[in-house]
Amino acid sequence: MYYAITIGILIVLIASYTISTYNKMKHSAVNVDEAFGGIETYLEERFDMLTKVISTAKEESKREVELVTKVTNMRSAFSQADSVNEKVEAGIQIEAAMPNLMATMENYPDPKFNEAFRKTQQAIIAIEDKLSAARRNYNSNVSVHNKRIVAFPAIIIASIFGFKEKKMFESTTYKRNDIDVDNMWS
Known about the structure:
Blueprint: H1 2-80, H2 84-107, H3 113-150, H4 154-161, H5 171-174, H6 181-185
Helix pairs in contact: 1-2, 1-3, 1-4
């Protein structure tokens, strides 16, 4: 009779331990998946945001470069003119372009070429900080999960239910989808 009670208590204890350990492993596996989802979200945000920011910065800088190029070309044409007739012709071209130049300068009175680059740099830093934090969170969750499934006797339960160790994020792994900023500016 005492043997039956002892065996019954032992079965209940083993079942309780198994259920508790399984639930902890399942919980840690879900945390790892959620943490990886955060990384994917920030990778998508990085791509979308940087594409838009760089596109905007390119347009801002393009307008400013066009204006500076026009003014520089006109000034060069005037200063390189050898004869009076060439200087008069260059002066006429400058005077004809002045209304357009003035309108452009009124629309864009404060060149923001450097500001566009600064905003792009700040956006890159901000999203990379978020990605770095997400990777640390992921690696922390992976560490908890991996420690949970390799300790004895939990390793037995992990192998019965098919729990596997998760791979940590390494610095070279996430760079496979890094944004190539140089090509975006061309």
